[in-house]
Amino acid sequence: MDMERLQDELRMFKDRHFPQQRLRSSLTVYVLLALSYLLIIILFVVSLSRVSVLSSQLSELRSELKQNHSSNEFKLSVLSSQLSELRSELKQNHSSNEFKLFPCGPEAREWEYFSGKCYYFSLRVTSWQTAKALCEEKHAQLAIINSHAKQNFIMYRTRDKRFWIGLSDQNAEGEWKWIDGSDSTAGFTYWKEGEPSDSNHNEDCAHVWTYGEWNDVHCTYECYYICEKPVPL
After folding, report:
1. Residues 37-84 pLDDT 10s
2. Which among 56, 78, 101 is the end of a domain?
3. Is the domain of 40 the same as that of 121?
4. What is the pLDDT of residues 127-168, one digit of tens each?
5. Of the candidates 219, 165, 173, which has an alpha carbon nearest to the alpha carbon of residue 189?
6. For 140, which DSSP code?
7. pTM of the predicted structure, to 2 decimals
8. Which of 190, 172, 189 is nearest to 181 (CA)?
9. Can you give the CATH number for the domain in which 209 is found?
């Protein structure tokens, strides 16, 4: 009897308290689910915020890179311009120095510069006609002496040697003309006393000899020669 009563009371206790336990369990589950959703929402919001910040930073970085690129392009353009100017300046300086060292051109170092012209003093003797042709091969002509300054330069350079100059009367006896067609009698002359003499009636070409004085001799006579040309541009 007591045993049955105990079982009945136990059954009544379970029936009275079990719904409350189920309710508590359900509430716990709902609370946990709500917290989970809330946590997910918070994480999403935080992630979204970070994405927004990163996107903003990326935009700023792109803008900065673009500005830097434009700035670098400008700097590169300035440096390129300065480099071109420097190259041009160096080229001008090089040309200027070359002219100072070799005014008649680096390929014509055997030529001598004087008063805007270049002069070549030959190292071998030949006739007047051959000397004329050799000067023309050098894009020059036999020297024309039309001033005291040029006469002094040539006299100092030739010393006591004989050199052909571009003066003759081959076209008309007694009419001494320079190789460019100009009349020698209308300007500067430096004939040796008693010259031109036309000895034996065949002295039609002029050369300079001792003290730089001019003398007429036969054109087949062999002596050194002087070529003359303008300074190359």
Report:
1. 788 888 877 777 787 777 778 778 887 878 877 777 777 777 677 767
2. 101
3. no
4. 999 999 999 999 999 999 999 999 999 999 998 899 999 999
5. 165
6. -
7. 0.59
8. 172
9. 3.10.100.10
Handedness of CA 152, 213, 219, 178 (dihedral sign): positive
User: For 89-93, what is the mean pLDDT?
Assistant: 60
Structure tokens given for 31? 């609370």
Provide the domain limits for residue 225.
Answer: 112-230
Q: What pLDDT does 186 receive?
A: 80
- Verify that 95 and 165 share a domain, yes or no: no
Report d(CA 208, CA 193) in Å as an integer. Answer: 13
> Which tokens is 51 given?
């994405």
Which range, of 59-63, 94-98, 172-176, averages the lowest pLDDT?
A: 94-98
Q: Residue 140 has which token pair? A: 């020059």
Three-state DSSP state, 194: coil
The whole-angstrom distance between residue 133's C-alpha and the CA centroid of its chain comes to: 39
Q: Phi/psi of residue 119, each to 5°?
A: -130, 140
Percentage of the chain with pLDDT > 70? 80
Question: Which residue type occupies 24?
Answer: R
- Total domains in the chain come to 2
CA distance 137 to 135: 5
- Choosing from 68, 101, 134, the residue where a domain stops is 101
